[in-house]
Amino acid sequence: MDRPEGEFGVGEPVPPSARPAWDDADPYTRALRTGHGPLFLRRADGWLLPLEVERWCARADAVDLEILGRCEGAVLDIGCGPGRLVAELAGQGRRVLGIDVSAAAVSRTARLGGPALCRSVFEPLPAEGRWDTALLVDGNVGIGGDPRALLARLADLLVPAGLLIAETVPVDVDERVRVHLTDTHGTLAAPCTPFPWARIGTRALVRYATRAGWTAVDQWTTGGRSFVALRSRDRSAAPERTAVLSSPRPRKPSAGGPVAIRYRLTGW
């Protein structure tokens, strides 16, 4: 049915009631809900790092599948984003949980059929010390801006000699910065809250990991992306136990509360 002439015509402002619900959301939420960018991490000096929203929101590609093929046992995807890796592992019948601080990311992961929690890696998590594999891909090795603190936390989450697969910056870099998310090349009048981040190349990550008692077991580059596989210290006195996730069910969030997946942990 044709609209009356002049109603939401070219050049006319669209009233708030006619905009998508996420139109006034933060840039990351908008990007995940639309499935495309532009989206950047912006430093205070104006430097921009483009983020690959379209790839994150697509299905797992050949590079992703190679990563997932290396995973062992129960997998914890840290900073799972829109959930392509969690959904792929869940679809294969693998034991997996995604965590992300973004409710929009967790909600999208749930819609794809992947179990996920809206939570930081530095907050209490289910099955601590019982995950066989942890994933830090799509730049998530930068979480918290302190690779040493992140590695120490992951050692607590994994089983003895657990596997960490981390994606690194494909150049030799080691920097800690404060950034904010933006969807524009220009300066925002009211930028998002800045947060600490790190950019870590393979050499720097292996150096930090070795000093913290991890063992580098593999390094590889494929599809223009670089990865490192590390094993945590083998605490041989600790019994080997595996996290088993079963019966994932969406939990209806309270108003304004985080989106999460309710699930039951069994097989201890």
CATH topology of the domain at 60-179 and 194-250 and 259-266: Rossmann fold
Strand order, sheet with most strands? 5-4-3-6-7-11-10
User: What shape does the CA trace take?
Assistant: globular
* Number of helical stretches of at least 4 residues: 7
SS class? alpha/beta
What is the CATH class of the domain at 60-179 and 194-250 and 259-266?
Alpha Beta
Measure the end-to-end span.
Answer: 60 Å
Portion of residues in helices? Answer: 10-25%
CATH superfamily of the domain at 60-179 and 194-250 and 259-266: Vaccinia Virus protein VP39
Strand composition percent = 25-35%
The overall pLDDT average reads 82
Any guess at the CATH architecture of the domain at 60-179 and 194-250 and 259-266? 3-Layer(aba) Sandwich
> Can you count the beta strands?
13
Organism: Streptomyces tauricus
GO molecular function, one term: methyltransferase activity
Region (Disordered): 1-23
Pfam families: Methyltransf_23 (PF13489)
